[in-house]
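Chapter summary example: a protein plus PXL.
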Amino acid sequence: MKRIVTIQDISCFGKCSITVALPIISAMGVETAIMPTAVLSTHTMFKNFTCKDLEDQIVPVTDHWKEQNIKFDGIYTGYLASAEQIKTVMGAIDKIKSEDTYVVVDPAMADNGSLYPAFDKDFPKEMAKLCGIADIILPNITEACFLTNSEYKEEYDKSYIDELINKLSLLGSKKIVLKGVVLDEKFGVLSYDCLTGESNFYSHERIPVSYHGTGDVFASTFVGSVMRGKTIEESVKIASDYTVESIKITYNRVGKDSYGVDFETAMPYLIEKISK
Ligand code: PXL
């Protein structure tokens, strides 16, 4: 069995980050260790959330793992609480990574043209450095713009996406998976290999509703799938389809108002896809 560690916050309520990654990746048959970087009462879309930064635990925890000779096949980073914390996480990755550890960075920091409430404009600069040490990064269009200092557009053509991909590839990761792309009126995910220049567009259904935590459902499923030996293209398909399935179930159950998606109810669908 493969083993990963996911490095991100615990939002105690609100279905995102570790409370999504742990059940999904474990259910996919991949051992999932956690490095909680902060504990929040809820995710940051709730008013008056509390946050206890756990940055001072990162070095002692990784030192202990190193001393115990604990090895990881994958490292997956998500939401990180501050620019300072990103620097510490980069040091931790450097320490616990072996030659064949696969590093996935989801630069979870923005959506719909804006940074999440807890971040200032210096945060993306640090996140861009973390992206530079990844095997693969999973930004949405807004995050891609913040990472590359590009203008965010709702309407665009293919040349805009090509330019974003070009600038993202300069950050240094080996591959890019760009989410929420509209091309030729199709909605989907573009994957790009920075070494070969090959790209692949997977289009999927667009449900006209936006829920919190869907990026984390996608990233977790993607990581689980890659660890189970699927290709990037297969993993993009499995992660997209499971996320869409979770959104549909949520929409049918409660309509537009939900603090997260019903990924739990959609779990049998995922298990069937990953078992093929
Ligand atoms: O889903 C990403 C995420 C994770 N963790 C926290 C968040 C968010 C998005 O807003 O606030 C605390």
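Key point: The mean pLDDT is 97.
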